[in-house]
Design a protein that fits this description.
By secondary structure, this protein is an alpha+beta fold. It contains ten helices and six strands; from the N terminus they run βαβααββββααααααα.
């Protein structure tokens, strides 16, 4: 647990405070206190219950890591759940990490079980200048939320590249490819999760940006509306990616179907060629004593000649019709 304090008029932030000093620090209503709980324990949960007097259900939600984004207002504080993007995520295995945040009149609490790049970035900014704290707790948490949403942009770029490559692979494949189908399904699952999470997150930011909560001053609402614009873009792109992947799946099935049609056409052509040959061979293979040409000296070769002639004629007809070896001849327009 790290405690960061900004006192009004100070030129830099203060750190290095202990848990025992926290209650005294909170008495300064003009200060901004940021308590960052990274990989908290059950003892840290007691701080939320006993020092900040948070509702037990919110503390219980903090312990869980499968909650959807939401915002709830309680007497004296706001409780947020937002989802950030893992640093090592990939489109086909897209996953998010949960951030629980509390905003009070003069404090911000961030509670997370995984490392957040956005939180680390804000800490680096505060180490050089306390300007992020000078506008109050609501502006400080805005900076964290803004960077969480901004980290979705590289994920969108990855999705775009993977889908574009996937479409190229589909139309250049020579035979059904199970790996391509698996990639389509993996990407669809990733896009659905992206859409589900960002859709709920958009509603959270919307509520924060339209002046619904008194702890977010009116002069800060344009900053929250800017985050809302960014998350709207992410949601819209997730919708478009879902449509693209549905189209890619249809294209894959169409290519596979066309390939199967080509195979069936070739097999049908050979079956059609073999049918008269089988008939001729069957006729002259019957066990009758009196069959024309049966006892002639060149009867065997004559039958072979007829069979080969029939096969060549039929293959020529199929080729001219475009069923094998090309698209066939086209008629001149009248």
């Amino acid at each position: 647990m790290e405690i960061i304090v900004y006192r009004e008029g100070a030129e830099k932030i203060e750190t290095g405070f202990t848990l025992e000093q926290l209650s005294e620090l909170l008495k300064d209503e003009k200060a901004v206190i940021w308590v960052d709980m990274d990989k908290p324990t059950e003892a840290d949960d007691q701080i939320l219950l006993n020092v900040f007097r948070f509702h037990p259900l919110t503390v219980e939600d903090c312990r869980e890591t499968r909650n959807y984004p939401k915002v709830e207002e309680f007497p004296g504080y706001l409780y947020f759940i937002l989802h950030g993007v893992q640093a090592d995520t990939s489109p086909d295995h897209f996953n998010t990490i949960e951030l629980d945040a509390f905003i009070g009149p003069n404090y911000v609490i961030t509670y997370h079980h995984d490392e957040f790049r956005s939180i680390n970035n804000v800490k680096k900014l505060l180490s050089t200048s306390p300007v992020l704290c000078q506008r109050g707790a609501a502006f400080l948490i805005h900076q964290i939320f803004d960077q969480i949403v901004d980290y979705y942009s590289p994920v969108l770029d990855d999705f775009d590249e993977r889908i574009e490559k996937l479409e190229d692979d589909i139309f250049t494949m020579s035979r059904p490819n199970k790996a391509i189908l698996e990639e389509i399904m993996d990407l669809k699952r990733g896009v659905l999760r992206l859409r589900r999470i960002t859709g709920r997150q958009r509603e959270v930011i919307l509520r924060a940006s339209r002046g619904e909560f008194s702890l977010i001053p009116a002069q800060l609402l344009p900053f929250y509306r800017d985050i809302y614009d960014h998350i709207m873009r992410v949601t819209d792109m997730a919708e478009s990616y879902r449509d693209l992947l549905s189209g890619a799946l249809d294209a894959y099935m169409s290519v596979v179907g066309n390939r199967m049609n080509e195979i069936m056409k070739v097999l049908t052509v050979f079956s059609a060629v073999m049918l008269p040959l089988t008939f001729i061979a069957g006729v002259y293979g019957m066990n009758f004593d009196y069959i024309p040409e049966l006892h002639k000296e060149y009867g065997y070769f004559a039958v072979w000649g007829v069979m080969l002639t029939v096969a060549v004629v039929m293959l020529t007809i199929f080729w001219r019709a475009g069923w094998i070896g090309g698209s066939g001849k086209t008629r001149e327009p009248r």
